[in-house]
UniProtKB/TrEMBL annotation:
Domain Pyridine nucleotide-disulphide oxidoreductase dimerisation: start-end pairs: 346-446
UniProt keyword list: FAD, Flavoprotein, Oxidoreductase, Redox-active center
The name this protein goes by in its record: FAD-dependent oxidoreductase
Cofactors that this protein relies on: FAD
Family note: Belongs to the class-III pyridine nucleotide-disulfide oxidoreductase family.
Organism: Geochorda subterranea
Length: 459
């Protein structure tokens, strides 16, 4: 019989694993079980689908189940949930969600790619119609349908439809932009004292100003208390905050965070890490010799901290999936890990980070010193947008670059953050960064790039 690989979960990590395993071993039998109706799509594109920039939900899908069957000999079962995992007999229990039928399927090797789920804060009313989370393609389709109705010709009341977004992390902000573009009046409610919690407060202030400039009503230091509506199960009509503020709402998004889907791993007795996500070694093997794991449900290696961390991102999930798939098919690849790089764009402002923040570095026993510069993103005489603000964190004792954050005009930030991500990865000292041979031409950069200026200003 053919050796059989079962993959649980079919988005970024799962389909990367299945495809890589197929490339490694043409004889392997590969089964993917996915409980939602879709596989192989870019969830990172969901805000742009809501905005209407991406026309149809199908446009977010990379390959269909039929493609996987015909071109890659991978059997994809959508609408199938794995409800139990027994490592001792190497079997899973699978339930078809359409017919409720349960069957047992044996495997030789398994990849857990169950990802993460959106958390709904435990307050009254979060189950009302008109309240959404944005995680899966199905979430996106449901939310876009609601936005289409709110903005469509059949609207009953004449006013501008109102959205309240709870949580001002990357997803809340990207959706704020999307719904503003759709003509909704948007309020953001954030429990922390700033938007983008975790970023430098001065950086967050630039982002908040940009949101306000585009008409977004921003409320920080406000926790969600309840979603109100008519009667017990009536549609959402308002959001109430802990301070007693009431914000009228035709649509509510809960973007208050995610948690790793570890139920199967826990039930199977696999080791979880201190972060709560599934623990793996450098080959992405779990504590069971026949089970690999990858993606948002799994810890990743942090190259600066030199220990596992949970940093759920699409870029990492795809890479981890590829490694897990390769090893599940008999390969011997290692995942080198991450340095905590991320970027986003909100309206005309771009934000990014890499490595450690000053607070993270201090918590690890480094002696962090931060240099801040505000410097043009192009030659000073060249027409165009404003400056880049860059915070560079280095260790006073060793001189080593530990991390950076930046905010500035769209197109000018991710480039700088990526250069610094390479420098952090290479373990460079700030002194060396100050002498990097970076590109210069008036429309693209100033002769002294903000990176060089910040490194010079450090120490
Ligand atoms: P998931 O996408 O969570 O997929 C796991 C799948 O497993 C799910 O479909 C789930 O239904 C299924 N599953 C779980 N349990 C079972 C079971 N028992 N049986 C069967 N199926 C099961 N990342 C970036 O790097 N950059 C970005 O700009 C970015 N933007 C984002 C914007 C949005 C709106 C969202 C939601 C995410 C964004 N991300 C971004 C994060 C990125 O989308 C995720 O990191 C990525 O989707 C994780 O992939 P995954 O395969 O590990 O997990």
């Amino acid at each position: 019989a053919r050796r059989r690989l079962i993959v649980v979960g079919g988005v970024a990590a799962g389909m990367s694993a299945a495809s890589r395993a197929r490339r490694m071993d043409p004889s392997l039998e590969i089964l993917v079980f996915e409980r939602t109706g879709f596989v192989s799509y870019g969830s990172c594109g969901l805000p742009y689908y809501l905005a209407g920039l991406v026309g149809r939900s199908e446009d977010l899908v990379v390959y269909s189940p039929a493609f996987f069957k015909e071109r890659r000999d991978i059997d994809v079962f959508v609408g199938h949930e794995v409800t139990a995992l027994d490592p001792s007999s190497r079997r899973v229990q699978v339930r078809g969600l359409a017919d409720g039928e349960v069957r047992e399927v044996a495997y030789d090797v398994l990849v857990l790619a169950t990802g993460a789920s959106a958390v709904r804060p435990p307050v009254p009313g979060v189950g009302r119609p008109g309240v959404f989370v944005l995680r899966t393609l199905e979430d996106g389709i449901a939310m876009r349908r609601h936005v289409d109705v709110l903005t469509g010709p059949d609207r009953t009341d004449g006013g501008r439809p109102r959205a309240v977004l709870v949580g001002a992390g990357p997803i809340g902000l990207e959706v704020a932009e999307a719904l503003t573009a759709r003509g909704l009046s948007v309020s953001l409610v954030e429990m922390a004292g700033q938007v983008l919690p975790g970023y430098h407060p001065d950086l967050a202030a630039h982002v908040e100003a940009e949101l306000r400039r585009h008409g977004v009503d921003v409320h920080v230091n406000e926790a969600l208390a309840a979603v109100e509506g008519a009667g017990d199960g009536g549609a959402a009509t308002a959001v109430r905050t802990a301070s007693g503020r009431t914000l009228p709402a035709d649509l509510v998004l809960l973007a208050t965070g995610i948690r790793p889907n570890v139920e199967l791993a826990r039930q199977a007795g696999l080791r979880l890490g201190s972060t709560g996500a599934v623990a793996v070694d450098h080959r992405l093997l779990t504590s069971d010799p026949h089970i690999y794991a990858a993606g948002d449900g799994v810890e990743t290696w942090h190259r600066v901290l030199r220990r596992p961390a949970w940093i759920p991102l699409g870029t990492t999930s795809n890479k981890m999936g590829r490694i897990a798939g390769e090893n599940a098919a008999g390969g011997d690849a290692t995942f080198r890990g991450v340095v905590g790089t991320a970027a986003l764009r909100i309206f005309d402002v771009e934000v990014g980070r890499t490595g450690l923040t000053e607070a993270e570095a201090a918590a690890e026993g480094w002696e962090p010193v931060t240099a801040y510069v505000r410097h043009g993103s192009r030659a000073h005489y060249y027409p165009g947008p404003g400056p880049v603000h860059l915070w560079l964190v280095g260790d006073r004792r060793s001189g080593r670059l530990l991390g950076a954050q930046a905010v500035g005009p769209a197109g000018a930030v991710a480039k700088r953050v990526d250069v610094l991500a390479v420098a952090v990865t290479a373990g460079m000292d700030v002194d060396e960064v100050a002498e990097l041979d970076l590109s210069y031409a008036p429309p693209l950069a100033p002769v002294w790039d903000p990176i060089l200026m910040a490194a010079r200003a450090w120490g």
